[in-house]
Amino acid sequence: AIQDPGMEEVREVLQRRSRMDGRMPAELVAGLAALGPDSVPTLYGLVTGRGLEALVGEGWQPAAWKCRPEEIPALSAQALERAPMRAVIEHLARALDDEPTDQERLVILRILAGQGSAEGLDLVWRSASELGDLELGRPSVNRALREALVSILRRDRQSWTILEKRFEKLEPAACLALVEAIGAAGQARGMELLARSFTRGSPAPEHIAEAMAELELACPWTLAGRTMEHCSPWLTSRASAECARAARLAGRLHALEALPTLIELASHVDGLVRRCAVDALRTMAGLPLDFDADAGAWSGWYERELTWKEERWEPLLETLVSDRTGPANEALRELAAHPLFRHEMARTVAESLCEQPRAVALSACTELERLGSRWALPGLVSALEDAQPELRAAARRALCALTGETRELSVEPWRALIDS
Fold first, then answer.
1. How many whole angstroms separate alpha carbon 217 and alpha carbon 375?
2. From CA 417, how far away is CA 186, in angstroms rounded?
3. N or C, which end of the chain has less CB nearby within 10 Å?
4. Is residue 213 a contact partner of residue 252, using CB atoms and an 8 Å limit?
5. Which sign, positive or negative, has the C-alpha torsion 229, 235, 241, 247?
6. Residue 289 burial (CB < 10 Å; 0-12/13-18/19+)?
């Protein structure tokens, strides 16, 4: 039961001292979190809704409070995310002992996601086990479990050591959620766990392949080619669904080594395989979805692209780092006009930013942002060490755009991202 002293402390934070006393939600969350370990049971009761009536009383007076009653559970949940970790973990363990409802288990998973601590993993697995495979099949439940795992994997490196020991002992639904979480977490070390799972054949290989692809796309400078290492045999499979799946993955991953096979599949007798192969080719070529061509036309296009690369690639890269701004800008434009090699271009151009004429380097950062290739990240991070503030600022803008994250204009926080 919620104790009165804890309730009084919460009231102190949420009630107005005067008519002019008002605070933003972030300040209320900070105030609740600062109440310390003893407030954790009270806050948890408010998150579940059980303590809300006792807190606000029968005679609710809006002018006396800094928030509405319906906002209090969410504020309390955010406070628990910032409350002392050990106190939160211990209370959630006791809550699970009390046989909570499935809805309360989802609340527990969301709080564990907010804490993002490896010490919460046992409670995550316990919640998953008690929910059961049938309940974990529901999208909202699966999402809560996956988000808790992603948060912990991203924020606590010790979680990987724990997972490596538990991975093969999980129930099927929990194992699938973990595979999806590893893909979404964007940590390169997760590929080894996925590879082990692929070899073991559990969960289904198609689910593991999707997670592999997501992870490879997040860290291509480290993981390029790892997904197709396992999935390339599917390209020649007699099972149409398997072949089509591999073609789609090859296009998503921009797997240039699979391109000749994709061209062959563009005239496959099976409509699904043919459509997936053509879609993959269009994606890699940077062509619109209504572009239509037969295998012969695709072969001709590929030969022209290979010839261009053989003849023009090296001279263009040399021009890009020359001291002639005009030709260097023209070289940048020509390189960008060949989407088939956009990831290789992104990596190479980003790595040479500090050698390019200053005006060209600034244009290159904009072009890299437009290309949207994460291959550019290591080079852009290195450019943050350049002496020119304009280039550092442009590199940071490109990094923010490519990652969706906002970090300081310094090397260390961005280096931590690419070294994960």
1. 9
2. 9
3. N
4. yes
5. positive
6. exposed
187 near 151, Cβ under 8 Å? no
Q: Is 269 left (phi over 0), alpha (psi -120 to 50) or beta?
A: alpha
Extract the tokens encoding 41.
Answer: 């049971």
Nearest CA-CA partner of 374 in 414, 320, 411: 414
Instruction: Tell me the per-residue pLDDT of 298-341, one tens digit each, with 9 for 90 and over.
Output: 999 999 999 999 999 999 999 999 988 999 999 999 999 999 99
Q: Return the HEC string of the chain.
A: CCCHHHHHHHHHHHECCCCCCCCCHHHHHHHHHCCCHHHHHHHHHHHHCCCHHHHHCCCCCHHHECCCHHHHHHHHHHHHHHCCHHHHHHHHHHHHHCCCCHHHHHHHHHHHHHHCCHHHHHHHHHHHHHHHHHHHCCHHHHHHHHHHHHHHHHHCCHHHHHHHHHHHHCCHHHHHHHHHHHHHHCCCCHHHHHHHHHHHCCCCHHHHHHHHHHHHHHCHHHHCCHHHHHHHHHHHCCCHHHHHHHHHHHHHHCCHHHHHHHHHHCCCCCHHHHHHHHHHHHHHHCCCCCCCCCHHHHHHHHHHHHHHHHHHHHHHHHHHCCCCHHHHHHHHHHHHCCHHHHHHHHHHHHHCHHHCCHHHHHHHHHHHHHHCCHHHHHHHHHHCCCCCHHHHHHHHHHHHHHHCCCCCCCHHHHHHHHCC
Phi, psi of 65 (to 5 degrees): -120, 155
Cβ partners under 8 Å of residue 418, min gap 6: 219, 221, 377, 378, 381
Distance of CA 140 to the CA centre of its chain: 18
Structure tokens at 80: 């628990």
Spatial contact of 175 and 203, defined as CB atoms under 8 Å apart: yes
Predicted structure pTM score: 0.89
d(CA 76, CA 275): 50
Tokens of 195: 């590879």
